[in-house]
Amino acid sequence: MNRHQPTIERKEAITSFNKAVLPISNTLLAQLSKVLNDHPEVLADRYITINFRDKSYSAEDGGYHPVEIALSKNAHNRYTILYITDFSYCGHHFPELDRELDFDFDNSAAFTRYGGWKSICSPEIIELYPLWEDNFVAYLDMDAYDQIELLSD
Known about the structure:
Blueprint: E1 16-17, H1 26-37, E2 47-53, E3 67-73, E4 78-90, E5 96-104, E6 109-112, E7 116-119, H2 123-141, E8 147-152
Parallel strand pairs: 1-4
Antiparallel strand pairs: 2-3, 2-8, 3-4, 4-5, 5-6, 6-7
């Protein structure tokens, strides 16, 4: 072993995000940056979709809801969150994975399964989003998602 061999450190790229209509925490933005930096093959792409999955999640046993986050990158290499969708099983006899929550930043709208579509700036959504985000970030910190996939174009 050569004691004079330099240590090679992987430098994390700085990922910056545009401001969103809802108050997205720096903690979530840091988590998204980490995911992006862990997949350098997509960093040159303009549109990226990140899928977070708990492979054990099922209608029978529950688990952590799948989450999909879509990003676009502008000419200045700043990301914009287009949407965040949380999925869950619904239906009794033949449950299907369906949209539970959808924060559609691109169209300033939000969907809840039992409330339908509303303005993303409505008081209910402004109250709901931080609760959802706190839970999601906690699940990420717990490594609840054992499958994280990135799609790009």
